[in-house]
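Slide 14.
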Amino acid sequence: MTESSDPNLRILDAPSPNQDARPEGMPIDALVLHYTGMTSGAAALARLRDPSAKVSSHYLVETDGTIYRLVPEARRAAHAGVSHWRGQTALNGRSVGVEIVNPGHEWGYRPFPALQMAAVCELCLQILARHPIPPQNVVGHSDIAPDRKQDPGEYFDWEGLAANGVGLWPTEPVVPAPPASLALPFLSAIGYRTDLPLPLLLTAFQRRWRQTRVDGEADPETMAVLAAVAALHGDPDSHPH
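Slide 15: predicted structure.
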């Protein structure tokens, strides 16, 4: 492994063989954040570099803030799988993927340490400076694959990232709360696929935007936040092209 000379981040080059060329002419216009969901960072790093696993990401961020660069951003990594966001599918071809070391819901899900989140934030800011990624397209794995994934989950500090220029966060919920019948149109406006059961979609939404209650219910508070988030995503020009 070789170390980057980046003055703000400790980045180690740890190339993964699980990469290929991006589709010709496709923009890099999405940033996907994951947790590793494994027992240790070392196990995750080994898996992301194992040719038989056929999975990878562009970066892996350890709990102490150390960053491993696995795949060049110009290349396609295998991190998103079957995915959908704001009308686009197969997001591996148009996204940068960042894996964040955390045991996940299977192995003892826990909050993300401050050093780790600081490194994630700085890394994301640098990625956003290099590519035309609108804030609406900074997403979690559970946003783009709500039927399969839970990461990075309800302990992830999306609000803090947004305060520092990474992604979006509503300043205030909509009052009075809209009726629950508008849940699916709001979810569609945000970018979620709409051919899945509504409770599943609402659960994914809550993991990201209403983290104190993740139950898949369209209660008034969820609807109030849902309307506010939909308003942030409502510009049709922000869809990837």
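Speaker note: Residues 153 and 213 are 12 Å apart (CA to CA).
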